[in-house]
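Lecture notes, unit on protein representations.

Consider one protein chain, 155 amino acids long.
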Amino acid sequence: MTVATEAVVWDTVERYFDLLQAHADADVMLAEVLTTDFRTGFPDGHVWEGPEGLREFLTTRSVFFDERHTLQQMSEPVRGADGRWTCRTRLSFFLRRLAPGAAVSEEFSGLAWHTWVLEARRPSWRVAAQLVDGFANLNDNARTLFSRPDEGLRT
C-alpha cells in the first residue's frame, strides 16, 4: 500500500459523501462513484443491495435536508484476494430534518465507524460497500434513528 493508494481511497469515500449530501439520485451515484453491486447498511441487520436497494436507501434518507459527514480517521487500505480494497473509517455526522407541521427542525449527530469495500477502476475508483460497524456519542434523535439495525433507518 502506498500513500497514493491511501489518498485515492480517501478521495473515493469523500466523493461518495459529496454525492450523498447533495441528494444525488441513484443513477448519478452509480455513474459516478458506486459499483452496480453496491451495498450499504448494517452487517448484522438490514442491508440495501444493488440499484433497487440503493434507490430504497436514498428514498428512506430523503427526509434529511441538511447533512455533513466528516472523515476523521481511516485505517490502512488492504487489498483482498478478489482485488477489491477494504478499509475502516471513523467519522462525525450531522443530519437535519423538518417534520411536516413542526416549528423547528430536528438534529441528529454522533460518530460512526464504517467498513468500506472499494474497487480500483480507471479513471476513478468505486465504492462497492459501506457497512456500519458502530456508533458513539449519539444524541437522542440519532439513537432513535439507528435503534433498529434489523429494520434499517427509523426515519
